[in-house]
Amino acid sequence: MTEQQSLPLNPAQREAVEHPGGPVLVLAGAGSGKTRVLTMRIAHLITTQHVAPQRIFAVTFTNKAAGEMRSRVAQLLGADPRGLWIGTFHSVSARILRREAPLLGFGPNFTIYDSDDSEALVKRLLETRQLSTKVYPPRTVHAVISSAKNRMLTPEELGAQADAPLIKVAGEIYAALGPALKQANAMDFDDLLLHPLTLFREHPERLAYWQDRFQHVLVDEFQDTNAAQYLLVKHLAKRHGNLCVVGDDDQAIYGWRGADVRHMLTFQNDFPGTKLVRLEQNYRSTQIILDAANGIIAENAARLGKTLFTEKKGGERVVLLSTADERDEAEWLANEFARRAADGDAGYEGMAILYRTNSQSRPLEEALRFRGIPYRLIGAISFYERREVKDLLAYLRLIANPADDEAFLRVVNVPRRGIGDASLTVLGRSAGAWQKPLLEAARRASAITELRPNVREALAGVASLLDRLRDAVGQADPATALETILATTGYEQYLADEGSEGLERIENVRELVAGAAAWAEVQDPDAAEGTGSPVERYLTQAALVTPADEARDAGGVTLTTTHMAKGLEWPIVALAGLEDGLFPLGRSTEQPGGVEEERRLCYVGLTRARERLYLSWARTRYRNGRLELAEPSRFLDALPSQVVEERSTTPTWRPQRGMSGAMPPRPPRPRGAAARRLPDVAFPEEVSQDAPRYVKGERVRHRKFGGGIVRGVSGEGRDLRVSVDFDDPDIGTKQLLAAYAGLERDWEGEGA
Ligand code: ATP
Ligand code: MG
Questions:
Q1: Quick one: 88 and 128 in the same domain?
Q2: Tell me, what DSSP letter sits at residue 688?
Q3: Given a cut of 80, is residue 224 above it in pLDDT?
């Protein structure tokens, strides 16, 4: 394809892309094209080395990055790489496990417990042992267990290390957690990484199968793999030895979660004969931005050492801004971004404000909203964490996996059925005695004489409701399944009874259904091989979504944490809140290596910028309910003076702030998740400008289905459906939700 020529590679990049096989380590700085090399290598393997897509296993940092890489490969190939394994460690592991679960004592329909589920389970395990959840907070206990799992410690090993009572209790709960999860036919996030390793240890024939299966294994952001992840790829790549990893030790930012940058060092020992490729040209940033970033990272001692140059000589100087407080900071940045947009330097979608902690987003959001600047927040709260979404998914989970006790507890009294906590404790005891899941115990509630007759009846009612739902849903697609649940349970009415907030939730319910329909439309049937019903696959996907995956591509300034910005780039970037104690974050400075990791994070932030960079700090800031005086981040001291241009806002007198040290009132807190939604300004725009419009007879292109002709249009806004008659007779006519289908006018799709 001519496309390939439009994506040039430099000689070092080409070497990595075209390396015929064997272990390859690409060690290179930010913006040097590592991710691009990985993408091109996948395409190259398929086209030139004729490797079947289903024999390639590629790991990326987010599901969204996986999606982007996949469509890039599709572009290069001119066809969708059907069957290609690409995703995060969690999602590709889950895919293996769906097929192997029975060998590990799980059903293939296992549920993936999110951290709320896991914490709730830990809480119940504490309670049944009469251990105080005040003294041993379930969240902390779960965190200790999770960190032990990440370090691949067994419960016994954790217990043996115990010096504090909390750790001892965590060891005890950890020992009980495994069997409890198995009983519920559930795996938590950590299990997704560990169970494949257990499988490979206990079933060498399965290891042999997967080793044989994957001819090529590729890993992006290798510096952030933890021990379990590295072991997984080592196992998978052992047979064919074709393991290509790319990474940058200076961007290792997940040490706190168990990632170990030393894997970059041991790689060459683990794989003798490794081809080491260094990429030295940065294609992203101006020289000035690189100088600033290099100045900061140079302060770290333990580095592998890399060279990085750019042909984008010079550039605008980095603005180092000091402001009165966080609102002043936000307003200045909002003004500046508006000015930049007006000058035509970049559209809002080409701008980002990055910060260290999620709580910093609010003043920034307020300032942007005030100026009517569209933005998108890649935040801590995911769509899938909303109550109504979790309720419905819990029904779906219970249909797929009747042993899922956490899902049962979530919906047993939703909508209200008069089943209280005390009754559930009684039910739990019976379930324990019978060694049955709660749903099964509910079915036999008539035998539990301790319960009041009406509760027995209600519980039996829930069990039969679930039976009916399971029959009705069968092999249906997830959207139909959700609609069936809504129709059968009266859930929407239950929300409607909650008043205006309920109405907002109903909207989210509709969005969930529409999203499920859209999901089904873009499924790769080859990826489904042996991985369960559509509902099960949908649930896997929903469980593994992270906020970073949900970011809408529709315009607007991006607001996100520096962690989430990894791997991304924008023409204009601001790093806000560069104060000591915030960046580097206070608690991290107390840990060994903590400041170095924060410095790498800062380096990641700086290197996201292509053309223009702002670094700001506020002289006072509200933190933890108190106004605090701040010092500029120690990292800023290392900036070479010739690349920066200092700015400072004059301290503006604000009446409410000047009152002899009295604390100014805080603005009201946003109302939970709902307040964190996309800004109001984004909506009209989404509908009026960005919303696709289609006319009958028009030619369109779909990412996967190819070209076709619009035959009909119905609905509006989010529910706008287009019926397209695709050129490929195997695909035929399809109904697509316009908001999700990503249809393009055909002339745009051709030759671009
Ligand atoms: P990071 O360390 O931040 O993950 P990276 O090394 O993965 O960065 P990429 O994101 O792959 O770098 O590439 C950075 C930018 O440089 C992208 O915009 C990419 O398209 C561009 N780029 C990479 N290689 C080339 C090249 N040979 N010619 C032109 N542009 C290139
Ligand atoms: Mg990258």
A1: no
A2: I
A3: yes
